[in-house]
Write a structure and sequence with these properties.
Blueprint: E1 10-11, H1 26-29, H2 42-50, E2 56-62, H3 70-83, E3 87-93, H4 94-98, H5 108-119, E4 123-129, H6 150-164, E5 171-176, H7 189-206, E6 211-218, H8 230-239, E7 248-252, E8 262-263, H9 280-286, E9 293-296, E10 308-310, E11 321-324, H10 326-341, E12 346-352, H11 379-391
Parallel strand pairs: 2-3, 2-12, 3-4, 4-5, 5-6, 6-7, 7-9, 9-12, 10-11
Antiparallel strand pairs: 1-8
Helix pairs in contact: 2-10, 3-5, 6-7, 7-8, 10-11
Family: Belongs to the glycosyl hydrolase 5 (cellulase A) family.
Protein name: Cellulase (Glycosyl hydrolase family 5)
Organism: Actinoplanes regularis
C-alpha cells in the first residue's frame, strides 16, 4: 500500500459500548525480553484494556503448506498452536488439485494438511481459488484467471466439500481478492457474484451447515479496470444478491507502517471498515446486510524489501519506505489483535504469514513471516502469541460465528 502524502497518525477513539477491560496486564505479558523486546506503548495498552471478547485467531499460510515435507508441515502447524491460533487459512488451489484436467484429482497434498491440522485441534479455512490452465478464460494465462465456465469451478467446490466436510472442514472462503487482479483479466463484480452464488449453493447441498465467507477484499482505490475499491465491489455484489449466499465478508486491511488503531487523514485499510464517507459498515447497512460480520483473513507487515524500513507510522512513498523493522512488525501484530478484539463487527483475524519465503530483498512479499527464511523467530512471533493469549477468554473456545 502506497501513500502519497505524509500524515501524523492519531489514535482512534474506541466506542464506549465495546465493553469492559479484559487484559489490563497486557503491557506486562507482551514484554518479550532480550534484544527482541517489544515494549507496549501507552496506545497498545489502552487498546488491550478495552478489548472485551474472545476472537477467532488464525495464521494464513497461502499456498505454502502443500509443498512441505511432513516434518516441515508439522513444524509449521505446531507454530500455529504455539502462538495460540485456533484456525489456519490455506489455499485450496484448484490448479494444485486438477492441473492435469477436469477428470483428474490430486487430493493427497491437501489431505495431509487437514489431517495434520485436525491432529492439532486446528480448524481449517480453505480459500478456493486459482484456475488450472484448461479452465481459464480464453486468452488469459495466469493461475489468477477467472474460470471460463462457472460450472467447472462449482463442480470443484462441490467435490471439495464432499471430501472434506466428513473430515471436519465446514468453513469456506470463495476466491482471494476478487476486486483486484487476482481475478483476471479484470475484476468483475457480476461474474464473481455468479461464481459465489453457484459455489455456495453447491457446498451447502453437501454440507447444509457450512459457513461461506465472501472472498477477501483487498484494500485499495479504484484504478481503471485493474482495481475496484473494496466498498464499491462489496456494494455491487450485495446489490446482486450475494448476502443470501454468505455468512461473512472477508477483508485484507494491511496498514503497515501504521497501526490498525491509528487514525489518519487518508484512511488506512483498517479505517475503511468504519470511517469515512464510504466504509464497509455503511455498505452493509445500506444493503440491509448488517447480519454479515467481517473476517480479516489476511493482514501483516513485511520486514524486508528494496527500500528503507520504517520503525513508526511514516509515509511509505515519500520516504522510500517499502517495509518495517522487525520491532515495528511486532508492535503491529499486537495492535492488530487488540484492535480486532475491540471491534464487534470483526469475528476473526488471520496473521499473514508464518515464514519468510526467501531472503531476496527485491520483493517485500518475501518477508511477511513470523519467522525468517532460516527458521529463526522474529520478535513478532512471541508478540503475537502473547497478544492472542491476552485477548482470549480463558474458558471460551472460539467457534465460527454464523448468523441466523
Amino acid at each position: 500500500m502506497l501513500f502519497g502524502v505524509t500524515f501524523s497518525p492519531r489514535r482512534r477513539a474506541l466506542s464506549p459500548h465495546l465493553g469492559k477491560a479484559i487484559a489490563a496486564s497486557l503491557a506486562l505479558t507482551l514484554c518479550i525480553g532480550g534484544e527482541n523486546s517489544v515494549v507496549p506503548t501507552e496506545k497498545t495498552a489502552h487498546t488491550a484494556a478495552q478489548a472485551s471478547r474472545a476472537i477467532n485467531a488464525g495464521l494464513a499460510y497461502g499456498d505454502t503448506l502443500v509443498w512441505m515435507s511432513d516434518k516441515r508441515l508439522g513444524q509449521a502447524l505446531d507454530d500455529a498452536v504455539t502462538v495460540g491460533a485456533k484456525w489456519i487459512r490455506v489455499d485450496l488451489s484448484w490448479q494444485d488439485i486438477q492441473y492435469d484436467g477436469r477428470d483428474s484429482y490430486r487430493w493427497d497434498r491437501f489431505d495431509r494438511i487437514v489431517r495434520a491440522a485436525t491432529k492439532r485441534h486446528l480448524q481449517v479455512l480453505p480459500t478456493i481459488s486459482y484456475t488450472p490452465p484448461w479452465a481459464r478464460t480464453a486468452g488469459c494465462d495466469d493461475l489468477r484467471c477467472s474460470p471460463k465456465n462457472t460450472k467447472e469451478f462449482t463442480k470443484f467446490a462441490s467435490e471439495a466439500a464432499h471430501r472434506y466436510a466428513p473430515m471436519g472442514v465446514h468453513t469456506w472462503e470463495i476466491w482471494n481478492e476478487p476486486n483486484i487482479l487476482f481475478w483476471r483479466p479484470a475484476p468483475n463484480p457480476a461474474a464473481y457474484t455468479k461464481l459465489l452464488k453457484a459455489s455456495s449453493t453447491a457446498i451447502r447441498e453437501i454440507d447444509p451447515s457450512a459457513m461461506i465467507i465472501m472472498g477477501g477484499l483487498a484494500s485499495n482505490k479504484t484504478r481503471g479496470t485493474s482495481k475496484i475499491a473494496e466498498y464499491e465491489f462489496l456494494d455491487s455484489v450485495l446489490k446482486l444478491g450475494a448476502a443470501d449466499y454468505v455468512d461473512a465478508v472477508a477483508f485484507h486491511p494491511y496498514t503497515y507502517p501504521y497501526l490498525p488503531s491509528d487514525e489518519t487523514d487518508f484512511r488506512t485499510g483498517w479505517e475503511k471498515i468504519h470511517s469515512g464517507k464510504e466504509s464497509l459498515q455503511k455498505v452493509l447497512e445500506r444493503n440491509g446486510a448488517q447480519r454479515l460480520h467481517i473476517w480479516i483473513t489476511e493482514t501483516g507487515a513485511p520486514t524486508g524489501g528494496p527500500g528503507k524500513a520504517a520503525n513508526g507510522g511514516v509515509d511509505l512513498a515519500q520516504h522510500g519506505i517499502t517495509h518495517v523493522t522487525e520491532k515495528r512488525q511486532a508492535t503491529i501484530a499486537v495492535d492488530t489483535m487488540t484492535t480486532a478484539a475491540a471491534d464487534p463487527l470483526i469475528d476473526a483475524v488471520f496473521w499473514y504469514s508464518h515464514r519468510d519465503l526467501s531472503t531476496n530483498k527485491e520483493e517485500r512479499t518475501n518477508f511477511f513471516g513470523l519467522r525468517r527464511a532460516d527458521g529463526t523467530a522474529k520478535p513478532a512471533f512471541d508478540a503475537l502469541r502473547n497478544a492472542i493469549q491476552a485477548i482470549q477468554a480463558p474458558s471460551q473456545k472460539p467457534e465460527p460465528v454464523k448468523s441466523d
